[in-house]
Amino acid sequence: MNEDEPLQALWSIYEKSTASPVGRKLKSGKFSYRKPVENPNSSSQKLIPAIVSKQTQHDRQKRQINTIGKNNNMMSNWLVNKNKDNETPQPTEYHQDRDQGETGVEPVTSTVSNPDPNYNTVIIRLEQQMDSYLSAPKYLVPQDLNKIYAEADSLNCRKLLSASRLSTRRRQTKTNHFKSLRL
């Protein structure tokens, strides 16, 4: 055996004689998603996402509208402009009247300064939420619900009793045993 023969035998391990397995085929007919591309701005080394087709953009937009709804600006409505919030808010008359009316004494205010600048916006938002909650229409009191449920149960019992009376009257006419009973 020559020294070169074992090297020739091992060389077949490193050769790719078989084709690599084909990846999944996408609906578009392609075998992979679009990879990020180089940024046209030569000063930036970051890659940018590949261009997405108009149909894909439309599908994504429809899916978003179906999940969260149209014109859902929850976060933008919640955030309050910081320029307006630089002023300290005055407590509403409702809260002053309520606090003084219950005890007859003015409430003690905290002398600790709050380091969080968004604290005032949170207080304003909480007052708005409480006012909207208190102004909402009131629904049935549990006592009224109990009365409704009791009436429904009594109606159901009356129907069952009338059905049982009818069935016993039918049996009375058919058999001698039930003829002696009077309902």
Percent range for helical residues? 40-55%
Oligomer: single chain
pLDDT < 50 runs, ≥5 residues: none
Main sheet: strands, sense, barrel = 2 strands, antiparallel
Tally the helices: what do you get?
6
Number of strands: 2
Following the backbone from N to C, one meets helices and strands in this order, namely HEEHHHHH
- State Rg: 40 Å
Form type: flat
Structural class: mainly alpha
- Taking the alpha carbons of the first and last residues, their distance comes to 116 Å
Q: Strand sequence of the main sheet, in spatial order?
A: 1-2
Describe the model.
- This protein is mainly alpha-helical.
- Among the domains are: 46 residues, no CATH class; 39 residues.
- The chain has a two-stranded antiparallel sheet with strand order 1-2.
